[in-house]
Amino acid sequence: MKKIGLSVCAALLAGLSWMGAIAAEFPEKPIRIIVPYAPGGGGDILARMYADKLRTELGQPVIIDNKPGAGTLIGSELVAKAPADGYTLLFTTNSVLIAPILNAAAAKYDPLKDLTPVVPIGSIAMVLVAHPGLPANTPAELVAYLKKNPGKVSFASSGTGGITHLAGELFKTRAGVTMTHISETFASE
Questions:
Q1: Rounded-to-integer distance, Cα 101 and Cα 171, Å
Q2: Which of 2, 45, 63, 71 is the most exposed place for a label (fewest CB within 10 A)?
Q3: Are 158 and 164 in contact (CB under 8 A)?
Q4: In contact, 90 and 43? CB cutoff 8 Å
Q5: Do 178 and 146 contact (CB within 8 A), yes or no?
Q6: Where are the alpha helices (DSSP H) in the chain?
Q7: Alpha carbons within 13 A on the beta-carbon side of 7
């Protein structure tokens, strides 16, 4: 895992290397990484790992700034509206593309025009888990149970419109079952 993390960090640094051609003095001030998720989650933890490596490599402070909310729209908008000088970066998932589609009225940026991808960091597997009391031990048994009990089971995600929510909706559609979506809401101060 450590070897993979170092490789990904090297890829991130390589993605930032283009900035050296623009200004040999870069970075002259702290770099801010906006994480559009709540502190303590997977995205936040990964961002902090990479921020530590960037601090060491670049010799400048790298500040993690969590700006959760609106399915990543809040944090993504901050980066989209920041000066294009390399000092404000966005650490996100493909939700940066999904959120403006699902909530076009609230989106104040166009991810394809206002943001530029730098480097993919990695991929995260999603898993299907259930309470041990549910009488299903395989996906097939779960689908059978859900078909016999439409609407009696709920599924959770970290946020409406996020990738985990959409994965649950895709599961429902492909399996032909009915479940209720329950979303965790995070508050940020």
A1: 20
A2: 2
A3: yes
A4: no
A5: yes
A6: 2-16, 18-22, 42-58, 73-81, 95-102, 111-114, 139-148, 163-175
A7: 5
pLDDT in tens, 123-137: 778 888 999 999 999
Say how many C-beta atoms besides its own lie within 10 A of residue 175's C-beta: 16
- State the virtual CA torsion across 94, 44, 26, 10 in degrees, nearest 10: -80
- Distance of alpha carbon 67 from alpha carbon 70, whole angstroms: 10
Residue 185 has pLDDT above 60, yes or no: no
Calpha distance 166→126 (Å, rounded):
12
By 3-state DSSP, what share of the chain in percent is helix, strand and coil, each rounded to 5? 45, 10, 45
Biggest alpha carbon–alpha carbon distance for the chain: 65
For residues 154 and 182, is the Cβ–Cβ distance under 8 A? Answer: yes
Residue 131, phi then psi, degrees to nearest 5:
-65, 140
Cis amide prior to 27 (ω within 30 degrees): yes
> How many of the other CB atoms lie within 10 Å of CB of 149?
14
Cross-strand partners of 178: none
Degrees, nearest 5: CA angle 135-136-142: 125
